C-alpha cells in the first residue's frame, strides 16, 4: 500500500514532559516517525508520497473554528506575553469554575482549550500539526482508487476533541479523515481505534452522530490515561446511540484477550455496514512500550492487519501512539504488511 509522510513533523520536538512528578524527556518524539519511515523503505511496502496541502474546511466540521485559530496562534501569543520555552497549560476550568467565558490571555486559553498538560506548543508545533492533518487528508483521498493507505501522522490526534488538545494531540487526524470520507460520499464510516489509550477525542467528536461508528479497544480508564472517558457504558447520545463501542481491557492484557476484543470490534464494524474504515493505529499495546501495560509481541501486529483486512473495506491507517522507538517501525509496518498479505 501507499504511505503519506511529511518531514514537517520535526517541528514538534525538543520537549520534556511531567511524569509522576518528574520532568523526563518527551516520549512523543520525532524519532518515532523516522523509525516507521525507515521500516517502510526496508520492507518496500510501497511508495511514500508527500502530502498535498489542504484547507481547514474539513477540519472545521470536526473542530471548533475558534479552537483551530487558537492552535495556529498559540505559540505567537505565548511569545508576545514575554514567555520563552514551550507553552503549556497549568490551570483548567473543571466543574465549579466558569468555562463559558474564554480567557483573553494565553495562559488561560491554554487551559480553556486542553484537558491535560501533555500537548506542548513550540515554534514548529502548528506547522507539524497542519502537516499531520494534510497527511491524513492525502491518505483519505487515496482511498478513491486504492484499497488501503497509511497516513504516517505525527503528532498523533485521537485525544484531541472538538475544542481541546491533550495527550500529545492537537488536530484529530483520524476524525478529519473520517469526515473527508463522509464528504466523499461514504454514507457510513467506521473508526476503529487500536491504540493502547482510549481515543477520547474521536469519541467526543462523533458521540451524537449515527453516520460514524467509533470503536475503541484500550486500557481500562479506571487505571489508565485518559481516566475520564472510555468506559463500556458509553454507547453514544441522541442520534448516535449505539454508534459508539468501548472495549476496555485490564492492565497486563495479553494477545488472546486482546485478539478476542479485536474480533468483537470487527463484528461491530461489519454489523454497522460502513463503506470505509479508518484505523487509529497505535502500537503502544506492545509489551516493551515504556508508558503502557499490555503484552502484545511484534509477531501479533501482522495478525491485527490480517483481521482488519478480512472486513473487506477501503481502509485508511492513521498513526497514533507507540513509544518503544526501536520497535515502532517493525510493529506499525507489521500491521500494514499483515493487511497487504491478507488481501
Ligand atoms: C497518547 B497516545 C503517563 C502519563 C501519560 C499521556 C499519554 C498520552 C498517550 N504517566 N501521558 O494515545 O499514545
Ligand atoms: Zn496511546
UniProtKB/TrEMBL annotation:
InterPro entries, per the entry: HDACs, His_deacetylse_dom, His_deacetylse_dom_sf, Ureohydrolase_dom_sf
Gene3D superfamilies: Histone deacetylase domain
Cofactor(s) essential for the protein: Zn(2+)
Lineage top rank: taxon: Bacteria
A GO biological-process term: epigenetic regulation of gene expression
MF-aspect GO terms: histone deacetylase activity; hydrolase activity; metal ion binding
CDD domains: HDAC_classII_APAH
Pfam families: Hist_deacetyl
Domain Histone deacetylase: from-to ranges: 28-332
Keywords: Hydrolase, Metal-binding, Zinc
Similarity comment: family membership: Belongs to the histone deacetylase family.
Name of the protein this chain belongs to: Acetoin utilization deacetylase AcuC
